[in-house]
Amino acid sequence: MKKITIIIPAYNEEEALPYLYERLEKLMKEIQNYEFEVLFVDDGSKDKTLEIIKEMREYDKRINYVTFSRNFGKEIAMLAGLDYATGDAVIFMDADLQDPPELIPELIQYWEQGYDDVYAKRSSRKGETWLKKFTSKMYYKVLQSLTRIEIQKDTGDFRLLDKRCVNALRKLRESQRCSKSMFSWIGYKKKEVMYERDPRIAGKTKWNYKKLIDLAIDGITSFTTSPLRISTYLAIPTFLVLFIYFIYVIVKCITQNVAIQAFQATILLILFFSGIQILLFGIVGEYLGRIFNETKNRPLYFVDEYNGKKEMNE
Ligand code: UDP
Ligand code: MG
Fold first, then answer.
1. Does 10 score more than 70 pLDDT?
2. Which ligand is nearest to the CA of 14?
3. Stretch 55-64: mean pLDDT, rounded?
4. Whole-model pTM over 0.85
5. How far is the CA of 133 from the centre of ligand 2 (A)?
């Protein structure tokens, strides 16, 4: 029997957990032909979250938990979930029931058809402000324009991942994580499933705009070094303006037979030196980008298939 691990990062979710368990339990009863593990990652909750999880574990041995010494954030909690998961596949789910467990059979169905990463795409986002929707839309646009790896739009972390995706993700051990871009980066066969995102069942959202902006910046900077190119791109028009102005001044001096004026020389000098400075910044940026990519220590590729013994499913 195949085993599926449902990974649930939880931070101060005491209010939502009872509802979550009820829905999950019902679902696990319905799906007979799989073994389930529910792996909670308690991200340093300050309320009764851990107590409740332990209580649940008392009468349901399918529940396991990992706890953190402090709040490390959802991204790190997800990685811990991957590290401790024992299933043949994992499913990431939020604790607040925004990701409906009822979608799980469909995710499993596509997994059985051979897809490695079955991700849930939201067709609606109930209970979210237009500002959050708008900013997230713009963010995807910007991120996608910066990279050639395809980014999945309107997709959260709610997804099923085959064991080999899990193994791949375990190897990406950078500290500033952006799971969303990592799911894209590792590749493998992907399948989209549509769903309606519900409002949070109880408790408050742990996100605020600062966290979101941090996540957005982490996402862009951990995924691409394109912003470091800005200097290089700025240097080109600066030198172009310098060149045109230089020609103009020289031609004017010759045709009108006058010496170069002080202000003209000043403008030329400013353009020249600022151009050089921007250019040097750009060069530093280019090297910094390379060092940055190397220090991430990512493996260079993952084997999809290989005609010998299949060794990916450890
Ligand atoms: N979460 C976490 N650590 C944090 C913040 C959030 O593990 O520091 C968990 C939280 O318990 C929930 C999920 O991440 O299961 C999503 O959080 P939330 O619902 O607050 O975010 P939103 O859905 O509003 O984006
Ligand atoms: Mg939520």
1. yes
2. 1
3. 90
4. no
5. 14
